[in-house]
């Protein structure tokens, strides 16, 4: 009898584990009637690309457009100066589909750690009208390889996808991550790490 209870408990845990999800939960309602007016949720205005990375991301998520609440989607407009980039970053809660509206972009993502210890890089050059998908949680980037400005739009599978810009998070954390740890992790001289930590790391 004890064996039967044990098997029942294991089966119950297996079923429970199979339905656990890190994605947005299923909505509790069909839609949300937003009371507040949208805040900066306009994608017809080019963003200011006069910054160190040469790009600007205009985000329309639940924070700027409350009507997205429970819908599990958001949208961004990305403007790129000539040779501007959207540096390596990740969205912890969403996959992303990007379409180029103007210009030519070099885009890519890196796989998570493989069994053989390698991380594979997948890249593509996109022209106007081309589409590319970045899987949830993976580090990805875009680079304008043209001499003229570029524009892209991206849809994300979360109302609040989050973004972690890798260099900003690693070298711009407050308080700073221990420099000895970073020097060893990145195989850099500690003075280089200290210099990187003194830089102004800003979000685009």
UniProtKB/TrEMBL annotation:
It is found in: Secreted, Extracellular space, Apoplast. Residues 43-194 form the Cupin type-1 domain. PROSITE patterns: GERMIN (PS00725). One of its GO terms (cellular component) is apoplast. The keyword Glycosyltransferase does not apply. SMART domains: Cupin_1 (SM00835). It comes from the Eukaryota. CDD domains: cupin_OxOx. May play a role in plant defense. Probably has no oxalate oxidase activity even if the active site is conserved. PANTHER family: GERMIN-LIKE PROTEIN SUBFAMILY 3 MEMBER 3. This is Germin-like protein. It comes from Cannabis sativa.
């Amino acid at each position: 009898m004890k064996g039967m209870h044990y098997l029942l408990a294991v089966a119950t845990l297996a079923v429970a584990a199979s339905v656990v999800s890190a994605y947005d939960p299923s909505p509790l309602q069909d839609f949300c009637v937003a009371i507040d007016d949208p805040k900066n949720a306009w994608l017809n205005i080019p963003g200011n690309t006069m910054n160190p990375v040469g790009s600007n991301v205009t985000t329309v998520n639940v924070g700027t457009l409350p009507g997205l609440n429970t819908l599990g989607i958001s949208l961004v407009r990305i403007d790129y100066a000539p040779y501007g980039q959207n540096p390596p970053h990740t969205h912890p809660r969403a996959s992303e589909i990007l379409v180029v509206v103007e210009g030519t972009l070099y885009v890519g993502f890196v796989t998570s750690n493989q069994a053989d210890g390698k991380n594979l890089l997948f890249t593509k050059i996109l022209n106007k009208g081309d589409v590319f998908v970045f899987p949830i949680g993976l580090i990805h980037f875009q680079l304008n390889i043209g001499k003229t400005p570029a524009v892209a739009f991206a849809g994300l599978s979360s109302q609040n996808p989050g973004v972690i810009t890798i260099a900003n998070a690693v070298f711009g954390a407050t308080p700073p991550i221990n420099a000895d740890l970073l020097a060893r992790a990145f195989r850099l001289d500690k003075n280089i790490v200290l210099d990187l930590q003194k830089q102004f790391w800003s979000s685009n």
